Amino acid sequence: PRMAARGRGSIVNLGSVLGAIGAAGTAAYAGSKVALEGMTRAWAAEYGPRGVRVNTVSPGPIRTPIWPAGVADTVGKSTILGRAGEDHEIAAVIAFLASDRASYVTGATIPVDGGRSAI
Length: 119
Known about the structure:
By secondary structure, the protein is α/β, with parallel strands linked by helices. Helix content is 37%, strand content 18%. It is elongated, with a radius of gyration of 15 Å.
């Protein structure tokens, strides 16, 4: 609401490739990410006319300390690019969406998943 009152702003939600593909044992997590994508579109419709853009970035397997050793690399082999991503690759997309260079992007979910959601 404060961004809308100012007449400009950008919200970037962090989703997951699991919002687009199925994986056993992830129903609650995946469901929350699907809901986040719906919220992104609803907020884009609600706040867009008042100058606030709302988007979601959906990473695939990314090498971070959260993943046990080697798991991101193993899962990364299932992507089109055949590797896990790096945190800076996600950060670059978030920075773009938050910037004025993305001034015509709203209501979108951007997969940054090495092509995993495409196959």
